[in-house]
């Protein structure tokens, strides 16, 4: 069965409409009747496969009466549902909760993550994450607790039978974030997570020198019914790469990371060895 033509924006729009419909207290059938279309179309819209016309969306929003901010967000997303690729600009800093990324992870079947400088959010302890925030120029102290809560919720996504492979450079493992106690706890946490059924950790030792991953960190997401997506994070922006040729470049990079990294068992022993460092 071919993968459905579905974009990140389209799926986010569909999820937004779903939340609006569910929050209205009306059934899909009732909403469809008021909008003037059949229930099947509403279902396809919620799955990101079909689109409402501008008039149908306006009627649906008037029927369901979401908050003004959500209404405006959906109206802005509506004409861009078919666009591939999404550069989200967040202002001074990224939001505490990466809404779009989390929505994509929840429907993914596989997550492949590469981090050359620091450990990924999914593998961090709270204390390690706090130390990274303290060192950051972008996170004010009053936001730290909320961001830690959000990162904890993101870690929980790994428990949902999502197949995860994390490629970590030795430099990321050796990065001092806080004192020795924080470092020791973080390394122990990694060895525990490496035993999770759906988590694989692969280490790229510094001794190999230059390699394909020097281009930068990324997260590749694969889906049961959609084309793969690459998620890139910067200080105050997020990018979702969807063009097939562009994604293929990252898939080739993953093969190179797999070739130069230690196998799963040797990676586990490498991390264990760092605990006495």
Automatic annotation (TrEMBL):
One of its GO terms (molecular function) is DNA binding. Residues 108-272 form the DUF5753 domain. InterPro entries: DUF5753, Lambda_DNA-bd_dom_sf. Pfam families: DUF5753, HTH_31. This is DUF5753 domain-containing protein. It comes from Lentzea flaviverrucosa.
């Amino acid at each position: 069965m071919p993968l459905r033509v579905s974009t990140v924006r389209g799926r986010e729009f569909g999820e937004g409409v779903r939340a609006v419909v569910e929050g209205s207290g009306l059934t899909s059938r009732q909403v469809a009747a008021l909008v003037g279309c059949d229930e099947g179309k509403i279902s396809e819209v919620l799955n990101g496969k079909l689109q409402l016309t501008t008039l149908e969306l306006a009627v649906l929003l008037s029927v369901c009466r979401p908050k003004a901010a959500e209404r405006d967000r959906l109206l802005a997303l509506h004409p861009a549902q078919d666009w591939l690729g999404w550069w989200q600009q967040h202002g001074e800093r990224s939001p505490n909760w990466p809404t779009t990324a989390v929505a994509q992870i929840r429907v993914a079947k596989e997550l492949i993550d590469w981090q050359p400088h620091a450990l990924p959010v999914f593998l961090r302890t709270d204390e390690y994450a706090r130390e990274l925030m303290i060192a950051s120029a972008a996170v004010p102290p009053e936001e730290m607790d909320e961001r830690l809560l959000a990162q904890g919720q993101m870690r929980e996504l790994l428990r949902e039978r999502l197949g995860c492979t994390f490629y970590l450079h030795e430099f990321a493992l050796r990065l001092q974030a806080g004192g020795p106690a924080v470092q020791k706890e973080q390394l122990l946490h990694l060895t525990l997570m490496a035993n999770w059924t759906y988590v694989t950790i692969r280490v790229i030792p510094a001794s190999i020198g230059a390699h394909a991953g020097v281009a930068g960190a990324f997260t590749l997401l694969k889906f049961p019914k959609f084309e793969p997506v690459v998620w890139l994070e910067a200080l105050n922006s997020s990018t979702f790469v969807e063009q097939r040729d562009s994604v293929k470049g990252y898939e080739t990079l993953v093969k190179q990371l797999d070739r130069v990294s230690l196998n799963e068992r040797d990676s586990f022993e490498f991390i264990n060895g760092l605990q006495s460092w």
